[in-house]
Amino acid sequence: MSELLTTPLHDIHVASGARMVPFAGYAMPVQYGSIKAEHASVREGVGLFDVSHMGQIHFSGAGAGAVLERLVSCPVASLRPGRVRYGLLCNEEGGVVDDVTVYRVSEDRLFLCVNASNIEKDWRWCVRHAADDAELANRSDSTALLALQGPGAEAALQAISEQPLAGLKNFRFVASRCVGHEVTISRTGYTGSDGFELYAPAEAAETLWRALVDAGASPCGLGARDTLRLEAALPLYGHELDDTTSPLEAGLDRFVKLDAGGFIGCDAIRARQRAGHERALVGFQLTERGVARADYPIAHRGNSVGVVTSGAPSPTLGKSIGLGYVPPALAKPGTEIEIIVRDKPIAALVVETPFVTKHSAK
Amino acid sequence: MSDYDLPDSLRYSIEDEWTRSDGKRVTIGVSDYAQQQLGDIVFVELPEVGRSFDKGDPFGVIESVKAVSDLFAPIGGEVVEVNQALTETPESVNEDCYGDGWMIVVEPSDPKEIDALLDRAGYAQHIKDRE
C-alpha cells in the first residue's frame, strides 16, 4: 500500500484499528469494527466518516457562475450564496463525467465537491471549459472533509460549533468555528439520514475528528457508507454512473435542467431521450436467500436483460437489496426479475426507491 | 488486533478452516481469524449431504456485508452432515465459529490428510506471517 495516498486522518484510523483498503488511490478505512454496527450508529445515533479523499475544485471571478452554469446539469444562476445543489458534469455525448455538489459561497465564488476517483479527470474537464474571467483552483489536497451523519449529528456538532445549527436546512451551508478552526458546515450527506459535511483545512482534521468522537460520534468506514447510500438509493460513480450513462437512464431527471438547457451534453441527453432509452436504473429486493453484488446478471423469465450495479444486504431492512439496469419495460415496481448468483437464478422484485426513507426531514 | 481464539484441540488449514476429528468423522468450520477478517457474515452456502470433495476444492461460499469468499476443503471426503441452521442464522459464524458456527461433517477419504494440517502454533505463525 506504499504508493497509496493518505488523508490527514490516516494515523488516527490506523491507531483505531481500522482495516485500511485501497480506494480511488487512497488508503481508506473500510471498517473500524462491524459494518452492521457502524451502519446502525448512523441510522440510530451519529456516525463520523473521513471522506477527505474527495476533491474540491474552486471557481472564482466574475465568470465563475457562468462557467459552472455551462459545466453542470443543475441550475447555478438561481443558486443563492449559502446553498448547495447536486448535479452532474456531462460530456458532449450526454454521458456522466462525474456527479458533484455545487456550493455557492458568494456571488463570484463557488466550488464543486467531486468524487475522489475523478479528481484529475474533473479538473482537466473544468479547466478545458473555463473562460478567462474565472479562476480555478484544485484544493483537494489541502481540504479535509468529514461527514457527520445520523439523527444525533446536530447535537454532536452543536457541542463544538460556534454557529447555531438548528436553523440550518438541508442543502444549505454556513461558515463556523469549531475547536479553534474555520469550518464550512454543510447540511448534506450520502447516507439517507440527517447530517452534515464539514470542510476544513487539512491541519484541522485531527482536532475536529477527536472533538466529534468525544461528542459521541462513532467512527464509520467506507463499508457502512456504501450500505447506507445504497439503502438511500444514491448513485455511486463507477457503479450506477459512468462516461456512457445518460443521467436520465439513472433516474436523475430532477437534477437536469433539460428545459433551460445551456450545459455541456444537454443536446445529446435530449436526443437520447427522444430516441428512447434502452435501459433504466431500478431498485430491487431479493425474495429468496442470497446477496446480489455488482456485475451479477439480471434476468427476466430466464433471459438475460441487464446487470446489477450495486448490491448488499440491507442492515436496516434485513433483506438483500440492489440497484441495476433493466429495459424500461421491466422497470415498474412489482416486476419479477431474477438475479443470477453463481449461475443460479435468485428471485427478486423491482421495488420503489429509496429502500429506506429519511425519518428526519428538515 | 492479533487476539484470536485458536483452540489447541483443533487442526487448521492455511485457508483458515478448522477441523475437529472424532477418529472417524471430521467437523469443519472457519477459524476465529477468518470470521474476524470477514466481518459480519450474512450468507453461507453449503454443499448437500453426499457430495464428495478433494482436499483444496471449494465446498461452499461465505459472504460478509462487503465480500464473497470461497470455502476450501481442508481434507478430502464425503459430506455426511451439513449445518442447515446457518441458512437462517449465518451470524453464528461470528458469534461461535467453533460451536454453533460449524459448517459440515465429512468422512475423510484419506485420514492422513488430517495429520498434514497445521496445529495451533503452526497456524498462529501462518496468521502472523500474513499480517
Structural summary, described in words:
The complex is a heterodimer of chains A (362) and B (131). Chain A has eight helices and 19 strands. Chain A is of the alpha+beta class and 362 residues long. Chain A folds into three domains: 10-52 and 141-231, Probable tRNA modification gtpase trme, domain 1 (Gyrase A, domain 2); 55-138, Aminomethyltransferase beta-barrel domains (Alpha-Beta Plaits); 278-362, Aminomethyltransferase beta-barrel domains (Elongation Factor Tu (Ef-tu), domain 3, Beta Barrel). Chain A has a six-stranded mixed β-sheet. In chain A, helix 2 (35-44) packs across helix 7. Chain A is globular. Chain A starts with 9 loop residues before the first helix and ends in an 11-residue tail after the last strand. Chain B has a single domain, classed as RNA polymerase II/Efflux pump adaptor protein, barrel-sandwich hybrid domain (OB fold (Dihydrolipoamide Acetyltransferase, E2P), Beta Barrel). Chain B is 23% helix and 32% strand. Chain B contains five helices and nine strands. In chain B, the strands form two sheets. In chain B, strands 1-2-3-9-8-5 form a six-stranded antiparallel β-sheet. In chain B, strands 4-6-7 form a three-stranded antiparallel β-sheet. In chain B, a hairpin with a 3-residue loop joins strand 6 and strand 7. The longest helix of chain B has 11 residues, at 120-130. Chain B is globular, with a radius of gyration of 14 Å.
